[in-house]
Write a structure and sequence with these properties.
147 residues; alpha/beta; 2,3-Dihydroxybiphenyl 1,2-Dioxygenase, domain 1; four-stranded mixed sheet; 3 helices; 31% strand; globular
Length: 147
């Protein structure tokens, strides 16, 4: 398990800001979730079960020199999210180079559309999906021509 050093920035009032440094995606079926996120986004996984005391796989989401964070897949400790309910938690959004290609991979690997692709005019294409474990996540393709 990699430790992350955090150099906290200060806000306008001079207080240190807490920076997001890790995420956890709660899953019912670890292998299915690893196949989904590995197949769609190319993530790799490291078994950190020994450290966590439960099924827990570190998710390497990119090169350490790239903007972004790593996280983990964690065995869900309660019931799965109910269908058609409002989001209760954080939605992670992954940056993609080609929105339509990423959406095709999501659907091929068992994901479902939660909110279809829409333009953030002059900035990007955005949309939300449901993974194989019932979690909502987004994808985001920067595009100054989006409208």
């Amino acid at each position: 398990m990699r430790s992350v050093e955090v150099d906290l920035q200060r806000n306008e009032e001079g207080n240190r800001m807490g920076r997001l440094i890790h995420f956890e995606i709660h899953v019912d079926d670890m292998e299915r979730a690893k196949n989904f996120y590995g197949g769609v986004f190319g993530w790799t996984f490291q078994d950190w079960t020994e450290y966590a005391g439960m099924p827990y796989f570190g998710a390497v989401t990119g090169d350490d020199n790239e903007l972004g964070i790593n996280g983990a897949l964690m065995q869900r400790q309660g019931g799965s999210p109910a269908a058609n309910q409002p989001l209760n938690g954080f939605a992670c959004t992954m940056g993609v180079e080609d929105y339509d290609s990423a959406e095709a991979k999501i659907l091929e690997h068992g994901g479902k559309v939660a909110m279809p692709k829409y333009a953030l005019p002059g900035m990007a294409w955005q949309g939300y999906y449901i993974d194989t474990e019932g979690n909502v996540f987004g994808i985001h393709q920067p595009d100054e021509n989006a409208k």
